C-alpha cells in the first residue's frame, strides 16, 4: 500500500525491524561474509544490562579523557552522573559531545556497543527521582534528589580523610544517541550501525 501523500518522508526515514524496532545497517567491510546485522533488541539488552560503561570526553585542550562509570538506560537514552568538579563534568561543560562504550574484552565471543551523542544535564526533580529509582534498582546505589542534582552520602568528598563520609553533589547527564554501533564476535564477526535523529532511527 502506498504511503499517505503527506507522510512519505517519515516512512522512508524510519527503517524498522519486524515489530517496530529500529533497523541496523551491516557494515560489510568489517563483518564476516554472509553475516546478518545485530538486532536492536540485542544491542538494547546490552545497553540496559551492562554494569560498567567507559565514557570518552574531550579536554579543553583537545586531549581525550576516558573513564569507567555506571549508567542506566531510560526513555531512549543513557544516563550517568558525576561530581560537578570532576574532569568529565568540566570537559562536558566545554564540549557536550561524548561516547559511551560497553562490552567485553574477549576476542572470540561477546557484543560491544558504542553510543555516540551529546550529554545534556538533567535538573528536573521528577526526572531525577525516577532515575535515582533506576540506580537503586540496578546497582543498589541510593541517591538523594535535591537542588537539581543527585546527592551521594556513599562516596568520599574532595579533601575528605580516608574512610570519612560526606554528602557529594553529582550532576546527572542524559545522552540521547545520534549513532550506535554494535560489534559482535563469535561464529561471525559483525559490525552494525544505527543512526538516530530526535530519537527516531533514520536512513544511513
TrEMBL record:
Q: Out of the domains of life, which is the source? A: Bacteria
Q: Where is this region: Disordered?
A: 1-24
Entry-linked Gene3D superfamilies:
Electron Transport, Fmn-binding Protein, Chain A
Q: Which UniProt keywords apply?
A: Oxidoreductase
- Any Pfam family hit: PNPOx_N
Instruction: Quote the InterPro entries the UniProt record gives.
Output: F420H2_bilvrd_red/Heme_oxyg, Pyridox_Oxase_N, Split_barrel_FMN-bd
Where would you find the membrane-spanning parts of this chain?
A: none
Domain Pyridoxamine 5'-phosphate oxidase N-terminal, residue spans: 44-146
Q: What is this protein called?
A: Pyridoxamine 5'-phosphate oxidase family protein
* Organism of this sequence: Oerskovia paurometabola
Q: Give the lineage.
A: Bacteria, Bacillati, Actinomycetota, Actinomycetes, Micrococcales
